[in-house]
Amino acid sequence: MDKDIITTRTVPAVAMRGSVVFPHTDSFLSFGRAKSVAAVNSAFTDDRVLAIFNQKEPKIADPEAKDLYTIGTLAAITQMMSNEDDVHAMVRGLTRIKLEEVVSTEPYFVVKVSEVAEKDTETERVEALSREVSELFRRAVNLGKGVDVPTIMRILSNQADAVELADSISSLLDIKPQEKQKLLEMVSVETRLEKVLEYLNHEVNVLDLERLISMKTQRRFEDQMKKAMLREKKRTIEQELGEDDLEGLGDTETGELKKKIKAARMPKDVHEKAMKELQRLSQLPPHSPEGGYLRNYLDWLIDMPWSKYSKTTVSVKKASKILDEDHYALDKAKERILEYLSVMKLKQGFKDKKDNDLGYPTILCFVGPPGVGKTSIGKSIAKALNREFVRVSLGGIRDEAELRGHRRTYVGAMPGRIIQSIKNAGTKNPVFMLDEIDKLGVDYRGDPSSALLEILDPEQNKEFSDHYLEVPFDLSEVIFICTANILDTIPAPLRDRMEIIRFAGYIENEKYYIAKKYLWPKQLKVNGLDGQKIKISQDALVEIIKYHTREAGVRNLERTLATVCRKIAREVAEGKKAPTLVSKAKIQKYLGPRKFRSQIRGEKDEIGMSTGLAVTSTGGEILFIEVSLMPGKGKLTLTGQLGDVMKESAKAAFTWTKSHWRELGLREDFGKKVDVHIHVPEGATPKDGPSAGVAMGTTLVSALTRVPVKRDVGMTGEITLRGRVLEIGGVKEKVIAGHSAGLKTIILPEENRKDMEEVPENVKKDIKFIFADTLEDVLKVALVKWPLVVDKENGKRQIEPPAYIASV
């Protein structure tokens, strides 16, 4: 290597991030770091010569000598423009250099460099490669490669020698900075030209493909325009000749419809109705507007599956296997579904209509937060029964006609969604999912939930009458499954017709296995990466689950994994190598900073703040109760969009505190001297329910006695004026939310001890559960110490009380 070194000199140097400057090329550079700005200013005022080295790791803000590549470029500053914070300069690469020694690092890099000589500059192979590279570059330019005109003219005019040609084209290649650095470090011109030829070939292939796609798109567009123009001409000619599509059908159309009606195998009353309407159609004039309405009506009657069934094969073992393959966890829900299918198997699918003792199928209603698999488990039931699956979303429906259909007297009338879905299923006994039944609306156009009373009642839906069809259709063999997020908004008569199966949210461990076994392989396939054999590490999945999603289900988790796959797909599409393993570091690169943090606030126990547990339509959540005290006249202020029930819980807690002033060591009249403000973040989210009473009482006692609440303790329960802790609902969802938030202890009402059977075992292992009968039981666990003013053993004051606490 020593024979390649020509000269040595000492010059100012700058470190570049992601920009490689080649000899014989002009580059416009911007410098913002203080050292770089100082080096450029020094070089410009001296001989305008500057050493440029690329950083190995662009993320390093203040690089040292070890962070730079040893091969760089000696450049001359031709133009410079500066402002307050940064400098912009046009530089011309002169020659390759090697970093020999760092003379100084402050206030900027001053380095000793040696010029590196080129090898293999004038061989026959170099000349041949130069011609091939020039020709290929000309082709790339013709295909649309973006290059400025002066550069094109210089390269294609054969004025550049082999060295300048290789460097000039290297600077224009669409490759990574690391690949450009490798080209810069290639001393042999022959080797450099071979590598440039390889990269240029790839670019030309991509440009060729882009051009081909563009040509096909243009050709397709022209064909569509041509067809549209011909159709318009044809329409104009037919209008001039007075021709009409309805003419000439007459008996031929009537005969065809008659054959279709017979083939549809309709019930007797429906068949009579169809023939009556067909008779009316045959008597209408050819141009009658009513003819179109009658044809549409007869088409609906003909297309309905009056006698078409899916051959149901009920195998409980097969159903269990399918449910386990398609869904992880949800053991309670799966168990109830298998019981349902077992009863169906024993009753032979309820085909015997004469024997009423056989009963009718139960209407199942899956209730749980979004994304836990309610809809997909319905598909699995259809798959296990070998039946068709149809789904209707009821969210936002306010018009009864959406379900029952519009009467034929209206223009544009059509059947309701129930009949439409049955027709689309093509069979009389599909699995029919009514999604989001809790989001039905009601207004002046009718009450859709009242229409569902008939649809979901096995005693009535044998003769369901759609307003459009005007004939009964038997829905008794349809398996109806409803889904909802909450039960409160479902009318009681409708709720009474359904059996409720609750779907609780997933815990982190379950989400991990769902993502690994189901979601990641699915997203690889969806995004065209199934052939890449890309794996995702455990740490990466945990990072996504804990810090990039927060939900009871896995819908956002799947969406986030799809984002990661799209990032990888883009890299692969750009010619980069796909990673074999997606690590935690790559997750941070693909998804950016963490979107969520641990829900437990602060790093120490705090006075006047406790952690409560709640249930929403999206699953369990934790909420923080904050209390502040101010001198005043006993006023109680409640903020945080609290509902009436929650406000009453706060008042009950405040009353209990005032009635127990002696036990808490407070003055008898403290309630007249202190204003209390209770706030429940976040303020924009409405909150209601009685289960925050315990947390509010604990926070009030903490604020008044100046005793901190343990930050890793969560609590839930309704409180009475006597301080009793009453039973609440949603224990499983609340416990799972507390587990996800990192709570170590959860306080529950004693009456909820029975609900612990529903809590997953791995959650029970991580959390200590305390069951309380009274608020005193809660305070003994939740507070750092029992709020006594005087220590019974030594008579000394435990804490320094505020003015409203009684003196001892």
Tell me what you see in this structure.
There is one protein chain. With 808 residues, this protein is α/β, with parallel strands linked by helices. 41% of the residues lie in helices and 18% in strands. The chain has 25 helices and 24 strands. Strands 18-19-17-16-20-23-24 form a seven-stranded mixed beta sheet. It is flat, with a radius of gyration of 39 Å.
Tell me briefly what this model is:
Helix 17 packs parallel to helix 19 (555-573) and helix 21 crosses helix 22 (693-705).
Show the helix and strand layout.
Elements: E1 5-16, E2 26-31, H1 34-45, E3 49-54, E4 71-82, E5 87-104, E6 109-116, H2 124-142, H3 149-156, H4 162-172, H5 177-185, H6 189-241, H7 250-263, H8 268-283, H9 289-303, H10 316-326, H11 331-346, E7 363-367, H12 374-385, E8 389-393, H13 401-404, H14 417-425, E9 431-435, H15 448-455, E10 464-465, E11 472-473, E12 479-484, H16 492-496, E13 498-502, H17 508-526, E14 535-536, H18 538-547, H19 555-573, E15 581-582, H20 584-591, E16 609-616, E17 619-631, E18 636-639, H21 644-659, E19 674-679, H22 693-705, E20 713-715, E21 718-719, E22 725-726, H23 731-741, E23 745-749, H24 761-766, E24 768-772, H25 775-782
Parallel strand pairs: 1-3, 7-12, 7-13, 8-9, 9-12, 14-15, 16-20, 18-19, 20-23, 23-24
Antiparallel strand pairs: 1-6, 2-5, 3-4, 4-5, 5-6, 10-11, 16-17, 17-19, 21-22
Helix pairs in contact: 2-4, 2-6, 4-6, 7-8, 7-9, 8-9, 10-11, 10-12, 17-18, 17-19, 18-20, 21-22, 22-25
